[in-house]
């Protein structure tokens, strides 16, 4: 389950920010997750609760903001949303696509005290 290592990375970022900005409690963490990021939301939530124990983010709420998969289509020269990475263009049916979004995983913001 790679979500645990993702949560450990999130914790490192939180701890670095806590030191740099002098806060001692995180109440909410908002994370953007792209459709193609390969992240299982329930596993990430579970891992988050486990990894944050004993840290400034213990008990913090995790809010996941899902981002769509996007690709540029060479067939219709449009940027389209995709449900799956291997889907054809929903507009013209072309399979000549270049992924342009949906693989991100980033902390959007923190609510702190």
Q: How many H/I helices?
A: 2
Order of helices and strands: HEHEEEEE
Helix-strand category: alpha+beta
Strand content: 25-35%
Mean pLDDT: 96
CA(first)-CA(last) distance: 31 Å
What spatial form do the alpha-carbon principal axes imply? Answer: elongated
Poorly predicted tracts of residues:
none
- Which sequence of strands runs across the widest sheet? 2-1-6
How many β-strand runs? Answer: 6
Q: What is the C-alpha radius of gyration, as a whole number of Å?
A: 17 Å
Please give a structural write-up.
The structure is a single chain. The strands form 2 sheets. Strands 2-1-6 form a 3-stranded mixed sheet, with helices on one face. A 3-stranded antiparallel sheet has the order 4-3-5, with no helix packed on it. Strand 1, helix 2 and strand 2 form a beta-alpha-beta unit. With 113 residues, the chain is α+β, with helices and mostly antiparallel strands. It starts with a helix and ends with a strand. The mean pLDDT is 96.
Key words describing this protein structure:
6 strands; three-stranded antiparallel beta sheet; three-stranded mixed beta sheet; 27% helix; alpha+beta
């Amino acid at each position: 389950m790679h979500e645990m290592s993702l949560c450990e990375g999130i914790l490192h970022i939180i701890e670095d920010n806590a030191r740099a900005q002098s806060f001692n409690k995180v109440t909410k963490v908002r994370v953007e997750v792209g459709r193609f990021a390969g992240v299982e939301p329930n596993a990430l939530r579970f891992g988050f609760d486990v990894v944050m124990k004993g840290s400034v983010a213990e008990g913090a709420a995790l809010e996941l903001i899902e981002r769509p998969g996007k690709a540029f289509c060479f067939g219709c020269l449009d940027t389209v949303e995709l449900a799956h990475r291997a889907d054809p263009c929903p507009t013209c049916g072309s399979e000549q696509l270049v992924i342009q979004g949906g693989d991100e995983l980033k902390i959007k913001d923190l609510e702190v005290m």
